[in-house]
Hints:
This protein is mainly alpha-helical and 281 residues long. It is built from twelve helices and five strands. Helix 9 packs antiparallel against helix 10 (171-191). It has two domains: 3-132, CBS-domain (Roll), CATH 3.10.580.10; 149-262, no CATH class. The two termini are 27 Å apart. Strands 1-2-3 form a three-stranded mixed sheet. A hairpin with a 2-residue loop joins strand 2 (45-50) and strand 3 (53-59).
Amino acid sequence: MHPKKELEKGEMKVRDIMSRPIISEDEEALVSEVVKDMAEMGIGSVVITSAGKPTGIITERDIALKVLLKNKRADELKAKEIMSYPLITIEPDASVDEASALAANKRIKRLPVVENGVLVGIVSIRNILTLKPEYVKRFYPEVRLLASGWTLDRLERALSESEVCLAGNHLLSYKQRLKEVHNELCELVSYYVDDDELMGIFERLEQLYHEAEGIEEAEKLISVEEHRKRLDEILRKFRHITFLRKQQSISSFAGDLWLGSYRYRPGKELRLPFKRTRPSY
């Protein structure tokens, strides 16, 4: 079974999504050593320790603002002079929801994970949104979060199967497939509250679903024909939206947004961080 599906059976914990091993440096280390670590490892932050205990963090932003913009030499500064502190941490058994809320409230992108005073990992916004894209509004309120073409493609296939069942007068199978699509769409519209197109499809399908539940054997000759016509209209709209969003996701895959598969956004709007192939801290 896919690890994400396994995690979703229960409440996800920070330990399930954190990145490890974690790269750290002593507070007495030169900033040039920290920069070297970040360059060699391809990471965006290094946790700073004092006597083995995590006390601060240095990010690319710290280096840009506290070293480069102030024309200071990295080989003359110690890590403790530019690190961000006090360090905000979280325990590995905290829920992902708690981690998301803490990071959003403190307006930080990374949370070192500490267990019994020992640094065991780090969790980033990317870690969280990879498995919980519906949390994106907590970090980027201006972003319009829309369902991806790949999600819609799967639902369109299921809805097409229900059309085949209906065409073959297999009403029980038709109702079951329609119910499955309806229930998943109901969940999706609760996540993608800005997705007007998805809501429009859901409202039309919901009406069709409730009517299908009332189809009796004696009425099926009349009802089935009407249902096929309306289902075809819904599917045509569904396929149109799915195609456009899949095309947008494909075109943005190379060098565009790492959350591109989760939203379709025409025009110029707030863009999220670039996708990285390096570790997510």
